[in-house]
Amino acid sequence: MAKVPVQFTLNGSEKAEFVESGTTLLNALRDKIGDTSPKGGCHQGTCGACSVIIDGELRLSCLTLAETCNGAAITTTSGLAEGGVLHPLQRAFLDTFATQCGFCTPGMIMAAKVLLDHTPNPSRDEVVEALSGNICRCTGYEPIIQAVLTAARANSQNAA
Amino acid sequence: MELRKNYFADVRKDDLHEIGQPRPRSDSPGHVTGKTAFFADRSFPGMLHLKMVRSPHHHARIRSIDTSQAEKHPGVVKVLTAKDVPHNVYTILILIQIGPEDETVLADGKVRWKGEAVVAVLAETERAAQEAAAKVKVDYEVLPAVFDMEEALKPGAPLVNEYHGQNYYLYDSGECRKVRFGDVEAGFAGADHILEQSYQSSPIEHAPTETTGCVVAPEGNDRFTCYTNTQAMFFTLDNTSIILQMPGSKLHFVGGTVGGGFGGKVDVIVEPIAILGAKLTGRPVCFVYSREEEMQISSPRAAEKVVIKDGVMKDGRIVARKVTGYTDAGAYSRHSPYGAQKGAGHYPGPYTIPNVWIDTYCVYTNRTPSSAMRGFGVTIGDFALEVQMDKLARLIGMDPLEFRFVNAYRDGDMKAHRQPTEGAALIECMQEASRAANWPVAEKYMAMSSYRKGA
Ligand code: FES
Ligand code: FES
Domains of chain B (ranges plus CATH)? Predict the structure, then answer.
């Protein structure tokens, strides 16, 4: 099958790969590039576990073809901690016990990051809305919502 | 968090250091950084993908299987049928003497539920495996199927599973698990009221966010490393060893990281066939359920039917209880004989009843095999029992919470299955629930104790 070149930045570093045409970004990231932080829960756009950020927007990597990402800037949960220091969202997920099995966590953190990037002080309803595409079957939604609100508070305190 | 120290005040030792203290979870740092290694996060060069050809029928004889077109499909490396599996008929709980072996790894001569695995295809890519699976031709002779437990128990019903010979699991106690305590008919005869009700539930899917699967890597020394999300590591190791007729020393299972299980990952389904694929090809193998397979193929919680007949006195005492429980195992046993048995022990509920009669049946039907899920065997039973308790309270005009105090088991009470009650705390829980929910009960109930009999 025909291979196509793809080139993008992943968490700030340049990546280039040949993939089969039709390969999803999820599979390209996980199987080719080795970033397994986006998870495949359904491969059909219904669970949110594969969420990544492409050029500032929240996207489902299982429904995005790798070849459409040429030149894009992609962020995944594995790239959030800087020099071993956790991102405020990661810290908040730890502190509020917002992880159970952890399979939905990277996707949740991506959705939350896009929310906070656009809306630094969201209301609870805005948090719920922003996470509505992410399923947590361990159903720890309440601590996850608390984690996002906690991270937002931490952000605004740092900014002040 | 507030600790209520007034409960069990005279017997408690206040040496708790952890309770009430937040402690960081050891797995959270991995989860929030994306570093936790789930099974599917491992991949190996040359890894093959396994896809199953599944039965489109609920019950059918297999006349023939033609894999020739699939074998020729580009990218296909190996196609497996029943004859390739060293010990093809197994049952998970054989290790705790729950037999007979009644389930095939790959169907042999017959399928007993819609979705049953018939042929395994191993190919270079998931897509090639999927396309080739669609080219396997299976000629079926469709047989009459049975989907209802009571229908399945009637004489003349289609026989679901020949390894059992009848549509129920044969316990050492006979066609059902039995509990007999006191004289239930005498209890009913002396009761002020009788209430008989039946309760029913559908199968429930666990739907974990991570689907069931494993990745197998053949090691150079004839050993196999299997990365799996099983919830039952040792059942999986031992059953794989039986199915593949391979000593356990050749099998190295790596697990413990499960992306949601809820009981749905205790069956031994994906690992043996993936390891066999790795053995026969010498290549790493990945077998992971699609979301559709997770919903349709993985075991759900069993459908259950519970018929409860209670005799109750005007003062609130339950004097007799008769329960008939049915657990729908689907086509194969898996964990259901054990679930049905748990129900038998459980049905009196946390109540002391002097006359009890319980029969629980584990029934075979042509439905998806059911298995473990959070408190299986007792969860649906509890739903039925507690709804029944509310109905009984209403029948005699008593407050439903006070009604439960009257019947609550206490230390020293003999349970129907002949275990004396020890360490009961139901009364204290209800006292606290009464406070927390602002549902007051009479003072005499607030003064009761699980362990001080006079109170
Ligand atoms: S894997 Fe992409 S939404 Fe589920
Ligand atoms: S923590 Fe398990 S799915 Fe969310």
Answer: 41-143+207-296 (3.90.1170.50), 177-204+300-446 (3.30.365.10)
